[in-house]
Amino acid sequence: MIYLTNGLLNKQYTQLDDLPDFSHLVKATRVPQEALNMTDEQLAEYKSSSVTYALYGAVNGRQRRDDVLNRTVLFIDVDDESDYQTLSDRLANMFTAFGINFVIYPTISNGIKNGARMRIGVELDKAVELTAYRKIWLVITHQLHVKGDITAINSSFKQITRFVCEYVSERFK
Length: 173
What we know:
Elements: E1 2-6, E2 14-16, H1 21-29, H2 40-49, E3 52-59, E4 68-80, H3 84-98, E5 102-106, E6 116-128, H4 130-144, E7 161-162, E8 167-168
Antiparallel strand pairs: 1-2, 1-3, 3-4, 3-7, 4-6, 5-6, 5-8
């Protein structure tokens, strides 16, 4: 299932069933949401009210406070000291070599904060609950030699994702 919300202040999901979850992610990341040249206050307002966020998996209800039962797309937020292009090229080559369906896209902070700021979305073969999600996340970040934001697997399984896109698996181009 696909659950969308506009802005962080919106606490209710709109559920979509028209596309497979990963296909929706690929489609959504092809339409960038721009935040360049915004002040900190403008960026905070933009995130609060305008950015489209998604959760892929199953939720017990339609409110963001409701329990997330499982996830169908794994996300890794990476903040790295290298430059965006070098890191995204390296990661894209690794995912492609392993035959993994993925998207890599800059986070809203890329180009505003120093270093590469990106999000990686990985298609999961099946929906997974938190324990399996955590294990998969740890294996992938270790294999890629990236430091991902561990918040997504510790305190925030409910983390929602916003979109802009750089790389997509060959299968989805």
